[in-house]
Write a sequence for this structure.
């Protein structure tokens, strides 16, 4: 997938500073990019959003998306908008240049949607309705790994709350004009969060300990972006507490992998089984068998299935919420 790439340098470049720049309107870098195919920003960037109040990401009413990241060159804020087949991007902060260079890849330039062939009627219908779906590739590991660890074995609401509280308290205000966006903490800051603050955020010791082990080897984990997805997952899973579920959720975002399937999920096998066969009691093995016709594109197939909204009717109570901060 290739497109026309026109970078433009903005004013007031802040590269190299350690602190977030003061509130400013003028971007440090700009980009105009014309992708060869339509790009649906909500679909493409949606997996980066960790709940409706995610302090690192938001989508405005006009469809533009804002994202705050800790890049290899420092913190930065990115705004992207798609209009009339053209993507316009602006970035602020020390990481502005890095974010601008990454926009085409982030929005699926290296993705190959033409490699996908629907094998089921329900998948084909979603595929036709959503021509703008591309798989993101952030090129960053920790920003997807840490919230994925927070989502282990708890409800999404609990995980989103923990992410929101910890990023707002220990992260930093994002560069640029937005007052609401925050950049997630750097590895050393994660490592210094007191145990009682994890407790107040509702994060048990198992998940907090996994995050602490991960940030101690942050540089080695970020190196995984240069590996192919299976090798990257192997490296991530060397950290105790990071298993197949977490590594898949991370690599799907950091690498844009079309084939990495999330196994060990409480709901996904049932959703896939119900959508493709009408059976609701599918397990991981059954899900992988059903997805075998999509070998090489199984994650993309799952994305289309989730977009159908076809889920099995609930027959058991929701997973209980455990507020450990009150224990």
């Amino acid at each position: 997938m290739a497109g026309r790439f026109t970078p433009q340098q903005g004013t007031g470049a802040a590269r190299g500073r350690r602190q977030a720049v003061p509130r400013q309107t003028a971007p440090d870098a700009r980009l105009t990019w014309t992708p060869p195919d339509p790009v649906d920003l909500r679909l493409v960037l949606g997996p980066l959003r960790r709940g409706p109040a995610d302090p690192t990401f938001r989508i405005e009413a006009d469809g533009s998306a804002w994202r705050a990241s800790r890049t290899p060159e420092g913190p930065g804020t990115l705004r992207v908008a798609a209009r009339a087949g053209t993507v316009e991007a602006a970035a602020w902060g020390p990481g502005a240049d890095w974010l601008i260079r990454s926009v085409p890849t982030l929005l699926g330039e290296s993705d190959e949607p033409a490699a996908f062939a629907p094998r089921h009627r329900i998948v084909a219908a979603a595929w036709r309705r959503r021509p703008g779906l591309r798989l993101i590739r952030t090129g960053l590991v920790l920003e997807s790994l840490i919230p994925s660890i927070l989502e282990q074995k708890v409800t999404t609401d609990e995980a989103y709350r923990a992410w929101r509280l910890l990023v707002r308290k220990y992260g930093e205000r994002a560069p640029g004009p937005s007052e609401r966006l925050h950049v997630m903490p750097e590895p050393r800051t994660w490592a210094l969060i007191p145990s009682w603050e994890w407790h107040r955020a509702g994060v048990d010791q198992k998940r907090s300990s996994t995050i602490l082990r991960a940030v101690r080897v942050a540089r080695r984990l970020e190196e995984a972006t240069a590996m192919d997805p299976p090798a990257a997952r192997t490296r991530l899973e060397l950290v105790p507490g990071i298993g197949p579920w977490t590594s898949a959720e991370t690599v799907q975002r950091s690498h844009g992998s079309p084939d990495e399937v999330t196994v060990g999920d409480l709901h996904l096998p049932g959703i896939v089984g119900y959508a493709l066969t009408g059976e609701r009691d599918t397990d991981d093995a059954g899900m992988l068998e059903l997805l075998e016709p999509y070998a090489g594109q199984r994650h993309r197939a799952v994305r289309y299935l989730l977009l159908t909204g076809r889920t099995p009717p609930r027959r058991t109570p929701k997973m209980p919420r455990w507020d450990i901060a009150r224990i």
